Amino acid sequence: MTKSELIARLAERFTPQLVAKDADYAVKVIIDAMTEALAKGDRIEIRGFGSFALNYRPPRIGRNPKSGEKVSVPEKYVPHFKAGKELRERVDINP
Q1: How many domains, the chain?
Q2: Tens digits of per-residue pLDDT, 56-87?
Q3: Which domain holds residue 9?
């Protein structure tokens, strides 16, 4: 599901209380808040759904796939999602 599909589904489900424009705004605000929290290094937990956190990747020597040349890859933090128990169970029941 894409972001625009999510917005359309929200607007459809909550019609007439929520129009597509308001659903779009709500989704953008939520995504922005989550992005800001992760950028600050905070962990996000949504009960029954899962949690978002940052994983540390240490510096390493990589390889340029085109030339085969060794490349130094700097340390970085990458976003990581861990599904909650309820989500894992629902996905397992309905593949």
Answers
A1: 2
A2: 999 999 999 999 999 999 999 999 999 999 99
A3: 1-42
